[in-house]
Amino acid sequence: MKIKDILAAGSPTLSFEVFPPKGEEAYESVEKAALEIAKLKPAFMSVTYGAGGGTSRYTVGIASDIQRETGVNTLAHLTCVSSTRSEVKSVLKQLREKQIENVLALRGDIPADGPIATDYRYASELIYDIKQFDENLCIGAACYPEGHVESVNKTADIEHLRDKVEAGCDFVTTQMFFDNNILYNYLYRIRERGITVPVVAGIMPVTNVKQIKRICQMSGTYLPARFKAIVDRFGDNPAAMKQAGIAYATEQIIDLIANHVNGIHVYSMNKPDVAAKIGDSLSEIL
Ligand code: FAD
């Protein structure tokens, strides 16, 4: 089923993200975790893609395993920064063979030593090509409530989001954020610019301190005082930090749904127990 149709139903939806293994030896353990998460019957599951394209077959493999074994719809991520047009076409053919109807079209982070291929500069170009390949594929794209790190300002970033929607994307998923007001402000701004596609809120349950350091280094995401207090108090106690991180994410989700942000995507990081706890806490809300 296409994600745009799932979102169009208008009810709150909970979905989860997993990432593929880096090598063959970890395939079985990632597949096991992904299938366990799928047993929670989320609205859909997404499978990320290495920016360098090296893990492409694992992305398609895990997404296809989930669909085949559990019947849960999948969204396969696809990055273009290091791919040629023919490599992109080959992945799209694999998705078609495996009956995967949803693609998250991304540029990917530019590698430190520059892109390996130069067929694509921006995700909007990839979206255009995907549409040409198969106009029936449901296409998602990334968006950044705090602005993308490379962007000069939020206004320019929103203009580039418009390019992606005009190229044919059907919905967008946000980068993680820890203050819902940032999303509410962003929604106001993009709607004002005529961007009307559904916005799925990306929520990261932070379960250890290492994760927080990485998040801040990579994306400069704003951490509210309430969140910092949790890290200060529980950062040295892994079990308490995990519990508090899950509770924080759950509260964020409840506030979003209460404010009619119905699409919730949890960056579950291949952790079935984290996904299950969030799902349980929302059992009467969803
Ligand atoms: P784009 O939309 O191309 O934007 C990149 C930058 O270029 C932005 O600053 C934008 O404002 C600017 N820009 C766009 N068009 C123009 C233009 N015409 N002129 C000038 N500037 C322009 N990475 C992975 O490697 N694998 C994944 O699976 C993955 N999944 C993700 C899922 C989500 C929900 C999110 C939010 C991010 C994900 N990422 C993933 C990270 C993403 O690849 C990076 O954030 C990347 O740096 C930007 O990708 P994009 O598709 O948003 O790029």
In short:
The protein is of the alpha/beta class. The protein is 48% helix and 14% strand.
Notes on the structure:
The protein has a single domain, classed as Alpha-Beta Barrel (TIM Barrel), CATH 3.20.20.220. The chain is 48% helix and 14% strand. It has an 8-stranded parallel barrel, surrounded by 6 helices. The chain is built from 11 helices and 8 strands. The longest helix is centred in the last third of the chain and has 21 residues. With 286 residues, the protein is α/β, with parallel strands linked by helices. Bound molecules: flavin-adenine dinucleotide (FAD). The site of flavin-adenine dinucleotide has 25 residues, from strand 3, strand 4, helix 5 and helix 6.
Major sheet details: 8 strands, parallel, barrel
Unreliable runs: none
CA-atom Rg in angstroms: 18 Å
Level-2 CATH architecture:
Alpha-Beta Barrel
Shape from CA axes? globular
Helix content: 40-55%
CATH class division:
Alpha Beta
Bound molecules: flavin-adenine dinucleotide
Number of domains: 1
What key phrases describe this protein's structure?
about 290 residues; alpha/beta; 8-stranded parallel beta barrel; about 50% helix; binds flavin-adenine dinucleotide; oxidoreductase; EC 1.5.1.54; Mehydrof_redctse-like; methionine biosynthesis
